Amino acid sequence: MGYNLIYMANMTAPVRSIQPGSSPRGGAKGRAARQEAEGVGRVVIVSNRVPSPNEKAATAGGLAVALADAALPGTLWFGWSGRRAEETSNAAGVVTAGDGVTYATIDIAERDYQKFYNGFANGALWPLLHYRTGLLRFNRPDYEAYRAVNRAFAEALLPLLRADDLIWIHDYQLMTMAEELRALGVTNRIGFFLHIPFVPPSLLQVLPPAAALLAGLSACDVVGFQTQGDLDAFLENAVQLLGAQPEAQRYRYKGREVHAVLTPIGIDAKKFARLAVRAQSSPDAARLNESLGDRQLVLGVDRLDYSKGLPQRFDAFGRLLYLYPQHRRHVNFLQIAARSRQEVGSYQALRRELDRRAGDINGEFSDFDWVPLRYMTHAVKRNALAGFYRRAAIGLVTPLRDGMNLVAKEYVAAQDADDPGVLVLSRFAGAADELTEALIVNPFDADEVAVAMHKGLVMPLEERQARHAALLTKVQTTNAQHYCELFLSYLRAV
Ligand code: ADQ
After folding, report:
1. Label partner for 16 (CA 20 to 30 A): which of 396, 404, 425, 445?
2. In terms of C-beta distances under 8 Å and separation of at least 24 residues, what long-range contacts does 209-216 make, across chains too?
3. Pairing of strands 222-225, 256-262
């Protein structure tokens, strides 16, 4: 019942009320069986990358992690195989795995991939939607390849579709796929969820095909966002670029009704907490503990991406050691920054920049038996990562912009409630809208972040416990299952 009340409180679109039978409790199999019994149609998830079933849990990347729990038996998960081929395939390879999920994937031609993925998606859309117009690189051939790959996705999905399927497309790589599906005659309900931020019209218009992308998204019935700010920005763009006249977060475009909805993403907090308890006794956690001795750990975990504010974070740690000498020799900062998108120039430059700054800080503060900053660029397995979070006195999550940031939620879920660590969180992460009991900082201000780290390192136990208890309740409530069911309930209701 509690969940149903939350659904209703969040809903602004006219949504069919959720029956007690669809309560999220009861596990994946129960939910799948209920969906089938209710005749609510198969869910078709579409995302750029489709993890292979045994890769599901190991991937560094928010989308794969969050959706791993959404893929119930009976779901069709469609997308790119991860293979680059001579030609982009026009028919999908289909496999039903042991988990009951059917995976359908296509290969993408090398030349399309470069332009679609490295070019338009990650060279233009990613920087723009993270407010970094200075890094935006636009050219027509990249954009045309983006549209062509979205078309290829639609064409390959078409023969696999059933009349009552609910199609749920994910993220910025696939903003025009719904429009391509409509052009092929698909009348199914189509939803789209944007995992990253959205920008106001003054920024979006920097991108030459801004209006065409919005028109593409308007072929969906439901478009979902991480925060109210992103949702509002989307509607402002619909007004200014498409001439739409929204009412109660929905507008009409070319004879269709588009509903903008707020469906913040979450994690499976209970499962992650269990993982963290088990991970404490893992060999990796033992090695980390041994290397730390009784020193406090400040931990950062990110993909190596310029949106995550890593250079600024390194500087803030340097300022902590400068402003509060009492922490020297008593604190270690570990930054795990898994390499990502290394074919894009701005990512290579970031790596060089971090190497330099880490060297500067260690050069300035190291002693013969203490190196303050450890920095590694490969992914860590989730079962070790959960133990690292639990050992950390500070979870340092300071992106310059982030759609949500699941690391913040994982850090909270992994803590020992009797002796929890402190989350230091950027105000520009979507998670800051919810996780207000964290120490909220402006990541551009190294001194402010240093002061928050100090406050966290010396915070009395009672205050740590109170903040953590409030955060944990939120992370457990707005969890992965809640996210999936809320989004799908909107989609079913249109
Ligand atoms: P990401 O930008 O990838 O996701 P995030 O939400 O933090 O960011 O998710 C990263 C996931 O990958 C987490 O589950 C984390 O544990 C894992 N991960 C990150 N770095 C890792 C490392 N070095 N080693 C091992 N695992 C690592 C995008 C958006 C986010 C949004 C998510 C989900 O950019 O804003 O929260 O999608 O919607």
Report:
1. 404
2. 209/143, 210/237, 210/241, 211/241, 211/242, 212/176, 213/175, 213/176, 214/238, 214/241, 214/242, 215/179, 215/242, 215/253, 215/254, 216/150, 216/175, 216/176, 216/177, 216/178, 216/179
3. parallel
Give the residues of the chain that fall short of pLDDT 50.
1-30, 33-34, 36-37, 56-58
Place of tokens 């959404």: 70
Using the mean position of ligand 1's atoms as its centre, give its distance from the Cα of residue 79 in Å: 19
Residues in the chain: 494
What pLDDT was estimated at residue 62? 63
Sequence-ordered alpha helix ranges (H) in 2-48? 2-10, 27-38
What burial letters (b/e) apply to 150-162, b meaning 16+ CB within 10 Å? Answer: bbbbbbbbeeebe
For residue 463 the two structure tokens come to 């205050």
379 lines ligand 1 (CB under 6 A): yes
Task: Give Cα 397 to chain centroid, integer Å.
Answer: 13
Q: Of 288, 287, 220, whose CA–CA distance to 256 is shortest?
A: 220
Positions marked active-site: 195, 402
Closest protein CA for atom 28 of ligand 1: 62
Residue 336, ligand 1, Cβ within 6 A: yes
* Cβ atoms within 10 Å of 231's Cβ, excluding its own: 21
Residue 231 · residue 261 · CB < 8 Å: yes
